Amino acid sequence: MTTDSQYSWTSFYMEFADKLLAFKDDRQALIATLQKAYEEIGMRLPTLDAAGAPTDIDPFTVFCLFSRGLTASKRRVIALGLGGAFGVDSPLLDDFADVPVLPSINTTFYDQASRDEADIERLWNAFEGALAYADQPTESTRAAFASAYDAVLRQRRVGWNITMGLFWIRPFAYLNLCSRDRWFFALPDTMPSDIRATVKSLRDVPRAADYLELRDRVRSAMDSGGYEYKTFADLSVYAWRVSEEVNQRTKRAGKEKEKAVQAAALGDADVETTRYWLYAPGEGAAMWEDFYERGVMGLAWGELGDLNAYVSKEDMRQRLLETRDDNTSQTNSARAVWQFANEIKPGDVIFVKKGRSEILGRGIVAGDYVYDPDGGHYPHVREVTWTHTGHWSLDKPLAMKTLTEVTDYLDFVARIEAFFEDSAEEASDAEDPAVSYPQYAKEDFLDEVYMDEAQYDALVGVLRAKKNIILQGAPGVGKTYAAKRLAYSMMGVKDASRVMMVQFHQSYSYEDFIEGYRPSTAGFELAKGAFYFFCKKASEDEDNDYFFIIDEINRGNLSKIFGELFMLIESDKRGSKLQLLYSRELFHVPSNVYIVGMMNTADRSLAMLDYALRRRFAFVELRPAFDSEGFGEYRASLDNPRFDALVRAVERLNQAIAADESLGEGFYIGHSYFCDMDADTCDATALSSIVEYELIPMLREYWFDEPAKVEEWARKLRGALR
Hints:
Blueprint: H1 9-21, H2 27-40, H3 59-64, H4 72-85, H5 119-135, H6 139-152, H7 161-169, H8 179-185, H9 193-201, H10 208-223, H11 232-266, E1 276-279, H12 288-294, E2 296-299, H13 313-323, H14 331-343, E3 349-354, E4 358-365, E5 370-371, E6 380-393, E7 403-405, H15 410-421, H16 442-448, H17 453-466, E8 468-473, H18 479-491, E9 499-503, H19 510-513, E10 515-520, E11 523-528, H20 530-539, E12 546-551, H21 558-562, H22 565-568, E13 578-579, E14 586-587, E15 593-600, H23 611-614, E16 618-622, H24 629-638, H25 641-659, H26 684-702, H27 707-719
Parallel strand pairs: 1-3, 8-15, 8-16, 9-12, 12-15
Antiparallel strand pairs: 1-7, 2-6, 3-4, 4-6, 5-6, 10-11, 13-14
Helix pairs in contact: 2-4, 5-6, 8-11, 13-14, 16-18, 25-27, 26-27
């Protein structure tokens, strides 16, 4: 057996396997050694048995402790801790990160809940037989290994993972056939065509005779030369690296458009916040107990294969249409699996439902999407830290769909969360995981918002003192963009969970904002509004600032919307309580809540602000920033003569607008129309689109009774692009 390798981990893995073999007939000592090793590294040995602490264990599962989907650093700590406990002398160097691993949900090679008494013994026999055949390849050792290997194939939780287990213990003797390696074999020129065809045709884990024959053919092909990989270790690591690169590239490509849209709108592509999901674990919640015990959530739709391979929901939908014959559009199904793979993230909250009226549990998403081809009917999985289990009834019907985001339904989320606050049936003492947010300081604000330092300091100062501020200005001066970044800079981090935005309109009411009666299945029920929930959230976190942003604040009937809160929002009245209109609840606006309104000064259709409200807000004018240092640097980075000419034309246009008695400075054209471009996207087509579809229509609104003036400036703007 060839053991020459460029990888240091191979010696560690092989020596560790040899050390484990000594415990075949003394597994209680093995378990005790594992527990002691975990205590010394400051970790808890994973629950490897449905009953709690493991009573028996196989060697492949021991390897799985540090050879599954954990972070490389955590895997290293565990591996070194176990290596020390078992007396492994071989070093474990940096290339350890290259070792192929199983999905994080595969914690055991046996079924924790219902394993046969002989399952673990059979795994030990396969382990012992594999080592013997690898080290002394004779007909008798081959036959003994084949018999033991075929015996474990009948067991639950043993599938393709057995080939990776064999690879771990003797990486030069056994061929890894995990999903990534099989995918790699399907690529052109990875192996001779007959071998690729054989691997591609595999539907189930091959029996020993077929597996060993395939192994021998692959080894012969590598020995013949012509490939970068010379050993099974080389081959598997190479396949692992290539598949990871493709997965990441595919995911990036699939999300690029969505990220670009978000970034262009508010620049918040790097901002994370908690999202809430309603989830059904199988038909009739049949999989709930299994998923709860395993610490996962899973989806069916196995015919889709690895969801990372799809770049859009539409691609998923088309694949479902090809594989299903139920005369439905597959839109909801495609949305569910897309969200499961791409939109749910660690830290999100999962509410488990059964039917349309029952909640079964709550959990916190702990891992990224994993495709487990050996996962049976539910191959799409995510790790979840389940915090609660029980039975709670709702009087309102739940969505029928398998997966539904409910983040925006604040009243609904609050009602479900209330179940768990008083629950005595907590599943564990696990707390919601801490979230690390991107840092955001004053310097970041000044880099992104075209405002000088003195203006920023004055803005922050008046908001700290007044608690309430309105950013007013002409269209395109970046009011919304600046509002969020002002909040982030004052918080010091981009924590979107402490920022909420609403938009006022003519129909917006006190009932939407604070509380009111709304139709329900039982008639009418009292429901809380956005500002109520936001204030309650802030009051429970007094050490941190919260920012409530109101877009188009002058579009609503402000007296009607704010009601008795007119007094409570004053800076010197923060903390004072008043009785709410409907519930008669004593309510206050916390001192750590800042209200930032935005008002478009060019909207002729709006009534004057209520004087009582004006007294409670500070007003800050945002102006076009064409002459600011930041915009000048941005302009220089584009190095585009057409862009420069168009900006100069708009500056002259703003002078004409300011001089017009019917308009004035409140109707300026702002700089935001020209932002979020780079040297590649700032071309004649993009600039022409701004002129034709944004600026000229606005001028027609400004000078609706002076068409000649509109045409004059339309010619000047178009002329700047020639």
